[in-house]
Structure formats: structure tokens, C-alpha cells
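Changelog entry: the ABC transporter substrate-binding protein record was regenerated in this release. Current contents:
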Amino acid sequence: MLKRKSLLSTAVLMMLFTIILTACGGTSNTASSPASAATAEASAPAASEQPAATDTPAAEFRDYETPKGTVKIPAKPKRIVTDFYGGELLSVGANVVGVEPSAFENPFLTDLLKNTTDVGYPINAEKTLELAPDLIVVMYDGNYDALSKIAPTIYVPYGTATNIYETVKLFGDIVGAPDKAEAFLADFDKKAAAGREKLKGIVKEDDTFGIYELTDKGELWIFGDNAGRGGQVLYNALKLKMPEKNKNDNQTLQLSMELLPEYAADYMFLTTYDPEKKGDKLKELKDSPVWKGLPAAKNNHLFYNDFDTYYRYDPIAITAQIDLFVDMIVARNEENKK
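Regenerated C-alpha cells:
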């Protein structure tokens, strides 16, 4: 229940009510757009005062096809609100004026979101209206109808894009910046090639690399190349091999301790979802005879990675994670020589 009763809030709610009554066509959406997660750019414009979409001349709009139908969107949107696509939009130079709360915990986006507003999740319609966006992009469509009354809204379901290339091109198209998408991907390819070069002579051709996660309930999971945790970095950018048993058939697969040895890898990277920072489940895993008996444990090839840093899978995060993975592998190799 909202308890704010300031004159500003009352005025905003009246404006929202008026928009809902009068939004019968024009620039309001009737659909959301196909898309997927990805990308980020080293610099993004700060939020600035720009007119909302309804003030944009009709000639500056274009039709965009989405799972909900055709939506008229600005050809060059200037103020965008999103739920979970902050990094994807920033990677192609978009001006993100509002985003959901967890984006601010993404270490790769901290500087880029300094002038961006937390719009809550689900996206708060009142906060969104105050920001006067000319485009809204959502991963989840629970309050799509309300948002589409404020500005053109496109729905890009989770999983629309399956890799960084599809993602960056998708969002470059959405914001009318295909040139920035191409530039971002060129930089990504350059960084990936440099990373592969650094690993030559360190990683053997047949070495396997596995990504795992332990939850605060003691559940253990293994991941493929498109479920965050560094999958796109290890398997696509650095072109390292998955455990033979996994073979990417399952992007996420829960493992029992009995099955773990079958899905083990020569190099194993573990993140731990432990929001209360208890540490008890991680201690139990480390003390397990099964865990201690893995070849990766015996060869000092177990890596314990920070959840917030490696969970992220937007294009900016993926690009930054290349150096993180390469550096930790190189450093461990030097350590093991001693």
C-alpha cells in the first residue's frame, strides 16, 4: 500500500489517470518486442530532461514487431525505462533513466547508473511517469498494460537472444544505434582474442572447464553457456571446453553429490548464492569427501567466485569478465608452479 499523500504524488496520479482514459492509439503500444539480454558500453549518457514519447513528431517513429504485436517506437529514443535490460541498453549507448533495483548491485554498471532512478520491481507506474520516458523495455509483462499507457512499451521475453552477438544487435536495433552495436562487438572480439592468446601454453587442448553454483539451501547446480556465471566468457569468448557429460544440453542442471564426479571438470568455478552470508553450506561442501576428492581439488584448480560479480550476464559484464577469468587462470598457474 502506498502511503505517500504529497501534492506531487496526487498530481502524478491524476496525470496517469488522464493518460489511461485518453490513450486509445497514437504512440501508445499494443505490443512488446522480441529480444534478449546482453551488452554494455564503457560510457552512457546521463539522464537529461527530454520530452516524453507523446511529444515526438510522428515522422520520428517506426513500427517494431514484438510478441504482443506491432508497436510504434521512437526511431531514436532519448529516455528509456526498463526492468532487467539496463546493461543491454547501456552497451549500445542508450540513456537509461529508470531501472529495477538489482541493477544497482551490478559492479560493472555502477558508474553508468549514477544518474538513473530506481523504479522498483515490478516497475512502479507512478515513478515511471515522473521520469517522462519515450520508450519502456521490459523482460516481464506483468504490468505491461499500465506501462504502455505511459510510453511505447516493448516486451522482450527472457531468452529471446542466446548469446552476446544476438543481444547487442537486438538492442542496437531497438534504440536505433546499429553502429554502436557493431563497435561494441568489435571491441568484445578483440578482448576475447587477447584472452585466448594469454591462455596459450597454460590451458591444455583437452582441459575442461565447469561452472557450478551452491545455494543457501545446499543445492548444487551446473550451468551451460547462456545462464550467467561466466558461461559466455569461458565457452564462447575463450572457446574452452565444457565437461563431457554436460555438453550444454542443459543450461541449468541440479546435481546430487553422487552425480557431481560425473559432471566435474579439470577447472571448476563455483559461485555461492548466500544472501545472508551465513557460509554454512559452503563449509559443508568444502568439507565433503566428494568435493575434496575431485581432480580439480587435488590439482588446485577450484575457484570460488563472488556471486554478484559472476552472476551477471549483460554484454558489459560479459566483456569485463574475460579479463577476470583469464587473470585468475594465469595467476593460479603461476601459483601451482611454486
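Residues 1-54 have pLDDT under 50 and may be disordered.
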